[in-house]
């Protein structure tokens, strides 16, 4: 039986980022109507972790909305990791905190983080169209740092930002060059506060992109569909598993609501798909 790796995201610092990524409602520049807070209380994060663990999640990702780690954020992520690990030892902790140096990544590893997520987002050539406050090369370097640190690398991107097909191929080639263990694929979720046009992809085009991702990154253990899953695929969401996807995010995303967890679990049962209880299960 094919088994699906379930991940959950905890937005532990929300909406405070000074960068100008045009797809991101967490940038302070676009004044999107979202929750904004510096640090979510650790007890609340532990409660979220316990809940998703009880539903079968294996990955739990601690996300901060900033360009990268500073000393204060690093301390906070480490404190959260320590508390979550103690409460839910079965969960595999992932950090997603933007630009990170090798030393910062090693500190996270000591605190119990096992993987780091840093998406390339789009191609190197298209990147200046969606962000002007930091470079694509900086993102790529953080991914290289992750590989050097011994943490597992998760890196992917977003489709539907206005990029060309060549941009998509270029991004996927760059991701493949980094040998990630998991490739999170997002589909742009439009918000009227953001300067981008709505996602132009239809369902068939999006499924074809998932197939292409699997084909171009054959060595990754997992292709994960993250943000935009419910919005884009709607009633055809079950088809993603026919196109190489073996991981999904359950629960809410960073600033948008996801599907009801029970609804997703019911979908997996109907499809006769199991839930991975170890990373090896979903290979
Ligand atoms: S750096 Fe990250 S949190 Fe900040 S605006 Fe860009 S995508 Fe959003």
User: The biggest beta sheet, please?
Assistant: 10 strands, parallel
Please, what is the CATH homologous superfamily? Aldolase class I
Q: Quote the average pLDDT.
A: 95
Total count of helical runs of at least 4 residues: 9
Helix content: 25-40%
Strand content: 15-25%
How many structural domains? 1
CATH architecture term: Alpha-Beta Barrel
Shape: globular
Order of helices and strands: EHEHEHEHHEEHEHEHEHE
Structural Rg: 17 Å
| Total E-strand runs | 10
Low-confidence stretches: none
Computed structural class: alpha/beta
**CATH-assigned fold name:** TIM Barrel
Present as ligands are: iron/sulfur cluster
Query: What is the end-to-end distance?
Result: 12 Å
CATH secondary-structure class: Alpha Beta
Description of the structure:
- The chain has 283 residues and is of the alpha/beta class.
- The protein has a single domain, classed as Aldolase class I (TIM Barrel), CATH 3.20.20.
- Helix content is 35%, strand content 16%.
- It is built from nine helices and ten strands.
- α3 crosses α5.
- The longest helix has 17 residues, at 71-87.
Concise summary:
This protein has 283 residues and is an alpha/beta fold. Helix content is 35%, strand content 16%. It is built from 9 helices and 10 strands.
SSE blueprint:
Layout: E1 3-13, H1 42-54, E2 59-64, H2 71-87, E3 92-96, H3 102-110, E4 115-117, H4 127-130, H5 136-149, E5 152-154, E6 157-159, H6 165-177, E7 182-187, H7 203-216, E8 222-225, H8 229-233, E9 247-249, H9 261-270, E10 274-275
Helix pairs in contact: 1-2, 3-5
The protein binds iron/sulfur cluster.
Iron/sulfur cluster binds next to loops.
